[in-house]
Amino acid sequence: MVARLRGNFLAGLVIVAPIGLTFWLIWTVVGWVDSWVWPFVPNYYHPEPLINRLLGRTPGNEITVNVRGVGVVIFFIFTIFVGWLGKGLIGRSFLHMGERMVDRMPVVRSVYNAAKQIAETVFSQRETSFDKACLVEYPRKGLWAIAFVSTNAKGEIASQLSDGETFVTVFLPTTPNPTSGFLLFLPRSDIKELSMSVEDAAKLVISAGLVYPNNKAVADLPAAAE
Predict the structure, then answer these.
(1) d(CA 36, CA 43)
(2) Any idea where the domains of the chain sit in the sequence?
(3) What residues contact residue 151 under an 8 Å CB cut-off, 6+ apart?
(4) Does pTM surpass 0.90?
(5) Is the pLDDT confidence value at 98 over 80?
(6) Cis, peptide link before residue 47, omega less than 30° from 0
(7) Cis amide leading into 139 (omega within 30)
């Protein structure tokens, strides 16, 4: 009886935990955006005062409600308006004027330029993603780690390293947090490209080796065939 109850509990936990974590994350992010947006909106137009006015509640007899998501809608509409304005001639002129003013501020200039480059990279509509997953010998010979091939080395990096061989830019993530890691420049011959997708390799890194891509048998993979 106890073993069956434990098995049912674990099976239910596997189902409930991802759903609960997803809803909790969405709820937290929506609340964070609301808390950032609402200070810029006059209190008269906040959801709670509006609801109390619609219900005819007098001061001292007001109800307290937690309305989430309205700030997200306001932020979404505001961002669309700013994007539309920034695409126009007048908007671009004001933006360039503001950037010229920022360029004269030593500390602010560095922060703004770094934030702008990150935003352009993350939210760019162009295809900017890792090409392939691979294996690299790290931190020493005989030990292998999963990494992601970005692009071929370019510019000064390529000119300094290239000696008749192509060097590639590789990102080596840490486990279980793949957002941190190391940027490596390696000869293409020093990496072993994997047939698994970048998403499957990321799952393997995040799960600390517990989640293996098993859509294909090992014998069906090109590397195994070779």
Answers:
(1) 14
(2) 2-54, 88-122, 132-225
(3) 131, 168, 169
(4) no
(5) yes
(6) no
(7) yes
